């Protein structure tokens, strides 16, 4: 079996150490480790993290292979340092049966540059009217534990309650896209000063916050787990903080773009900034950063949402919502959280590997960088500074809001169970 020695890396940002990979496992961590017949990766000055885990990825397959496929999406994931992604259910057909989730799972096993764990739909066809085959999806080969109608909100309180009760039986979690649909009819961007000046339909913060408030109370009543997708407002932070102080089993995620970008960018009318939930205010951005730092927000999730060129290169009102994010996520987190002193690299490992793996029950991922553990690892050069050029993306889509922006950090190596999926910045 092959061996690799990562020499002189700062494990979780700490002291420089050598890490020996033997086959699929970390064999030794220490100083002065002998290379023997191992391939040597010189890693002085670089940060070694456990492989990143994304709890919120859109791979589009089956049905929208013009946007992304399991192959291209996992290549993008490996380029960004990810060793596992959770694939959302809004495919065509919807992943609301054991057959569809098993198809996605098998595509991941056959073609994936990282592990692919399907997320099952909460309701049939994402229509919010009838529970999908939750138990059958969990009992399938894909062993689904996370369920979401992401892209749509489970707005019926009775359906949401029944879903929480159902998944409780096998330790699953419902991941809610918090958006009260009646409050966002015709909405184009964040409701506020900018939307009023531009004359675009406003998307009020309360549309998100009201659903989160309802769902944490439902989770408390049922005694089940609820996860809040792409939390975006200061008010949502306050509700989640209150719920956690009460002992409610709620977790929450924030996207990289909501940690950096604001609704002021919409003044350009560039559809690349059109996203759901919308970009919010500077006050919201600062509240999200603080909440991620203090643990109120548990994880960073990309909401990687690829679209073909024609769905974004059009007038604002007609454009699809969403941004690609797998290949830039770690750089944005370094820029907004590490370089600002809000998080250490150990904190990054917690928010982007340990906790998302724990929430999604991703076996073998989010583990410590220590002997005997699976060799799922990410190596980053934090001193790198570069301009984002989507022409070099591994994703099939190019709808990034960071084009032309300088960001720090570059993933140089990604290892999936000891196999290099990314070597010296190039896909293996």
From TrEMBL:
Role played: Catalyzes the reversible cyclization of carbamoyl aspartate to dihydroorotate.
Residues where substrate binds: 58-60, 90, 276, 307
One example of a Gene Ontology biological process annotation: purine nucleobase catabolic process
Species of provenance: Streptomyces wuyuanensis
Keyword Metal-binding: yes
Binding site for Zn(2+) 2: 150, 177, 230
Cofactor info, note text: Binds 2 Zn(2+) ions per subunit.
Name of the molecule in the record: Dihydroorotase
Active site: 303
Keywords: Hydrolase, Metal-binding, Pyrimidine biosynthesis, Zinc
Enzyme class (EC, first level): hydrolase
